[in-house]
Every structure is written in structure tokens, then in C-alpha cells.
Amino acid sequence: MQTHTEIGYNSKVEGDVVVTRLEAAINWFRKNSLWPMPMGLACCAIELMATGASRFDISRFGAEVMRFSPRQSDVMIVAGTVTYKMALAVKRIYEQMAEPKWVIAMGACASTGGMYRSYAVLQGVDRILPVDIYVAGCPPRPEALLDALIKLQNKVAKEPVLSTLKKVA
Amino acid sequence: MSGAPNPAPTNPPPPQIETAAGQPSTVTALGLAQKLKARFEGLISEPTEFRAEITLRLSDIQRIAEICSYAKTELGFDYLVDITSLDNYGEDPRFTLVYHLYGYGHLKYLRLKGNVSEEAAEVPTLTGVWRTADWHEREIYDMMGIRFKGHPDLRRIIMWEGYPYFPLRKDFPLSGRPSEMPEVAFTQPAPLAGGPFVTIAGGKDTVSREPRVRIPDTDAVEMNARLERRRDIKGAHGEARGPGPIQPKKERG
User: Fold this and answer.
1) What is the pLDDT of residues A58-87, one digit of tens each?
2) Which residues of chain A have pLDDT under 70?
3) Quick one: which of B99, B108, B119, B89 has its CA closest to B58?
4) Do residues B200 and B219 touch, judged by C-beta distance below 8 A?
5) Would the CB atoms of A88 and B192 count as touching at under 8 Å?
6) What is the pLDDT of residue B111?
7) Measured between alpha carbons, how far is residue A64 from residues A49, A51, A150, B162 in Å?
8) Buried/exposed code over B39-74 (b: 16+ C-beta within 10 A; e: otherwise)
9) Could you give the CA distance from residue A82 to residue A44 in angstroms, rounded to a whole number?
């Protein structure tokens, strides 16, 4: 379902009134405050930290609030190699996140298992989680992660909100 | 706080290794190996040297703790560098354990090797000699399935408790085997699809030995035949075109 994403703002209108649709407003809030759950498992986590640091500055996109608690997170960034030993822990943390929630598979390992065609490594985190954005690279540069974040923002902006609510009988 | 400086920590002096003449001498790894061999006559092979490293083979690995205890207390090997294990798949005895010893007093290395069969797959622990043996032995137990008698805490260290295989054994496939432990972990075979990381023993060149993708049911004979065909094609086209090697300048005049 396609929804309108524009927010009309007219400074001529008295009282700074913003006219929009509720759905667009909610999505606008959501996409500009995507709090990440940093699931740093390997070297991609270093790039994730660089993305958060001042040079690349993920706070330009409202996603600087790295929450180490799944209860307060919106997007899980799986940064690194998911071993089978870790897999169910990752899944459990994802399940503890409150809806709505999204997943970015950062790097080759999280996307496909990467170079670890091995008995010990999960061959892509999408075998246990619904992944929204895959980022190529080993590890991806911070720009690539920011690009993924922007793509996720675009996706969030188009998601239906009200129509997914369940009607009270 | 008193003005007197703290006394520098002093290490205990290394044990004095004396020659037959009773004179202290420069200690050699070979000399230490000979001493160990003399103490455990008939149990230890003649020392072999490779690239200035001394290796001793033990005929009975069940006495490894006793030997290492002597090496530590009397010969000054106060540091256990590593314990590793080899899988000589298809041979009997199947496993080889390798102990690397080092002494901070004399700065010499010594390597001990001993075999253990697949049926026994159990050797005495060295945790009573060097406490650091604890994790080394747990790793060997985890990856190779060799148990250590008398180990205080013989659990898996990398894989989870309940994982049914020993992944570093030669008969364990690279892609892994499926397993399932509810609420703990699961595994599935990795999709190798003939590559990457496959090697074909007996290939004549690197392209034959390590192809980008392994075509199913190819072996070294087939890969070498391909190598010959490549040569034929190259021969038909002649040598590589382009400028030849740089000729030295002719002298003028």
C-alpha cells in the first residue's frame, strides 16, 4: 500500500500549522529517529563505530542513539560474522525488540556467511531474521552503511501504519 | 609513603644445568633433550633436529605428565607454549599430540610428540604440571575429541556442550554436518558448491590444484589433462606477442 510521504508546511499560515496525513507524520517521526541496536560481532563493528564517530556522524540521520538494550531499539545492525553459537542469541535479542523493527545485515558475513563457508558460521543472518537492507563489503565503509540507513529511511517512509492496526471487535 | 624505592622483583634463578665435568656450561636444547632421554631411558627416542628445533618422540604417551614434571622441575622448562594435536587419518595410532616447552631461564625450546590411538583417545592431563594446560586440553577435546584423564574441567571450549561432532578430525567435512540442540544452537551444512577453497591433490600447477570452482567428479587426472590442453592452445598461437625483452643499448662509435 502506497501512502503519501509529503508534509505540507506553509509559513504564511498563521500559527505555524503543518498540514499532513497522520500516517505520513508517524513515518516521518520513525524514519528520522531510527535507534540502532548495534549487534557488533566482528570487524564490521569497527566500521559501525566509525560510522557513529564524528567524521561520518550517523547523527546527521537521527540514528546516533545506539541502544544496548533491545527494548529501546528500532533497527538491529548485524555487523559481523554470525556463528551458530551466537545465532539463537541474536534471534532472541531481535525478538525482544519492540515493533516496529528493522534489520540491516552489514557486510558479507552477516549477509551470506561471507568467506566463512564453514561448519561454524551461519550462512547469512536472513536464515533466522527478516533482513530489510543488505550492505556489501568486507567490511563496508561507513558511507555504505549510511547509504543503507538512508535506503531504510526511504523504506520506512513508505510503510503503511494505520491500515496495519487491528480493529477492535 | 616511604622514600625507599620498591625492590625490583626478582625471578628465581634458573636451575643450574651442569655438564658431566661438573662445570656450568651454556645450555643447549639438545643437551636438555639428552638429559630428559637419559632420565627416561627406553621411553624417549633419539632427539631429532630440524631447523635448530629439537623433537623427542615418546613411545608411551601415558607417562607424559611424569616426563613433563621432570622437564619442568629439573630441566627448567617452566613455560608450556602450546599443546596441539594431529589427525593421521587412516593410520594407526590415529592421533599425535605435540607439546611445545620453553624455559625462561635458559631460553630453549623443546618439542615432545606422542601417539594415541582412536580407541583409547585418552591421555593424562598436564594441568597438574602447568595450569595453562587447562584451556589447551579443552580445545583439543573440543576440536579433536581426545580426552584428558584427570582434567579438572573437561568441557568444550569453542563449540557448545552437546554439539555431537569433533570438527578438526579429517573425516569431518569442511561444510559441516547438520545438528540441532533446541534452545542452544543448531548447525546446517554450508553450501560449498564445489568451491571455493577446494584443492585437488596431485595437480601439476596451481590452477589445477586450486581451481576457482571445482567441476563435479573431476580429479587430478582430469585437471592435468586440462593443463595439457591449455599448453596446446598456447602452442598453437605461438608465444605471447608484444615487445620483447629490453635489449642493452648498443655502444656508439
Assistant:
1) 999 999 999 889 999 999 999 999 999 999
2) 1-16, 169
3) B99
4) yes
5) no
6) 94
7) 10, 9, 13, 40
8) ebeebbeebeeeeeebbbbbeebebbbebbebbbee
9) 11
Whether residue A139 is preceded by a cis peptide bond, meaning omega within 30 degrees of 0, is yes
Kindly list the strands in the beta sheet with A102-106, ordered across the sheet, starting from the edge strand earlier in the chain.
A36-40, A75-79, A102-106, A133-135
Spans in chain B with pLDDT lower than 70: 1-25, 193-198, 212-214, 216-217, 238-244, 253
ipTM (interface predicted TM): 0.73
**Hey, which bits of chain A come out as E strands?**
8-9, 18-19, 36-40, 75-79, 102-106, 133-135
Contact list, B191 vs chain A (CB under 8 Å): 117, 123
Q: Which positions in chain B have a beta carbon within 8 angstroms of at least one beta carbon in chain A?
A: 158-160, 165, 167, 172-177, 183-192, 196-197
Are B190 and A85 inside 8 Å of each other by CB?
no
The residue whose grid cell reads 593443463 is B227
Beta carbons of B190 and A113 less than 8 Å apart: yes
CB-nearest partner of A119 from B167, B183, B197:
B167
Distance CA B158, CA B166 (A): 11
